[in-house]
Write a structure and sequence with these properties.
four-stranded antiparallel sheet, 10 helices, alpha+beta, elongated, single chain, about 15% strand, Chitinase A, domain 3
Length: about 250
Amino acid sequence: MESSSFLTVNDQTISLSQVITYLQISGKLANFISDVLRQYVIEEELKNRTDIDNNSALTEQTIIDFRLKNQLNDQDNFQEWLNSNGTDYQTFHKTISFTFQLEKLKQILTEPKLPEYFIDRKIYLDRVILSRILVSNQELAEELKTQIEEGSSFEQLAKEYSLADERIFNGMMGPISRGTLPDILRAAVDVSNPGELIGPLDMDGRFALFRLEQILSASLEDPQLQKSLQNELFEKWLTEKIQSLTVKIQVN
């Protein structure tokens, strides 16, 4: 590795090979290399694609909007901001442009796979809100269920009898990912409607009586969820690309 100057600290030169050695000793080299490889893969992909253009007009407008929002209309103030953030206009411009290109790349790579990926993940994306009364024996659980069916308050009985921490919230839990529920509970939830009692169920030697409060069904029409799944798929693609690289590290 070429020992070119990388930093100057108190007039003392620190070479690139020294920087790598410092990172290696501190245990941060792996993260540093990972960041470098991520950027390399993305830059190479963008360079080799013809379906992603560099929209300079959009970039320029974004910079204008940014300056207006942050009261950096004056050129001297803007230059001072650039200096304080360790950058210059050319680099800042490239950063904004890269952001738009990256988002377009994510969209192109993930859009065809998104519906199937959503279906595969839906069990973990759907959430439920449950209330629970957890007691030490089945007899008490059955008795409490009878009392609730006869008109007693689930919330009051939860505060009086439940062994679980959520008793201070009248027994209410959640929202909870449907996919993380124990199999026996998930199966019962799948055939229940909001407001219905579930159980008592044997939960590792203790007995739980549940009430299904609400089902929060995930939808691919949700922009926030769509963005999250898009990022997950992109990270999978990126990981596969990085794993296919042949990387050699040389430290002099």
